[in-house]
């Protein structure tokens, strides 16, 4: 059983968590926010925005956008 189905199984019928699409969207959004946070912490650690930090920030934003898209569908 996938993680999405496990979360959906705990929700009451008709609730937000009953839809696997919503659960999947929240998980992708959380992963994207973690990526954005990691890139900002890495930028502070190296004291500048280098190419790696920009790449991680872009990927985090793209993953967040995908999570929001999954929530909207």
Please give a structural write-up.
Helix content is 78%, strand content 0%. The chain has 73 residues and is mainly α. Helix 1 packs across helix 2 (20-46) and helix 2 (20-46) runs antiparallel to helix 3 (51-72). The longest helix has 27 residues, at 20-46.
Short structural description:
With 73 residues, this protein is mainly α. Helices cover 78% and strands 0% of the residues.
Q: What oligomeric arrangement do these chains adopt?
A: single chain
Structural class: mainly alpha
Q: Tell me, what's the shape? A: elongated
* Structure annotation, total helices: 3
Number of E-state strands: 0
- Fraction of residues in β-strands: under 5%
Rg estimate, integer Å: 15 Å
**What's the helical proportion of residues?**
over 70%
Poorly predicted ranges: none
The major sheet is characterized as: none
Distance between the termini: 22 Å
Order of helices and strands: HHH
Mean pLDDT across the residues is: 84
């Amino acid at each position: 059983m996938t993680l999405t189905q496990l979360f959906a199984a705990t929700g009451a019928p008709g609730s937000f968590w009953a839809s696997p699409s919503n659960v999947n969207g929240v998980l992708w959004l959380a992963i994207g926010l973690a990526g954005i946070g990691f890139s900002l912490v890495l930028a502070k650690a190296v004291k500048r925005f280098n190419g790696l930090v920009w790449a991680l920030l872009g990927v985090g934003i793209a993953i967040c956008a995908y999570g929001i898209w999954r929530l909207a569908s």
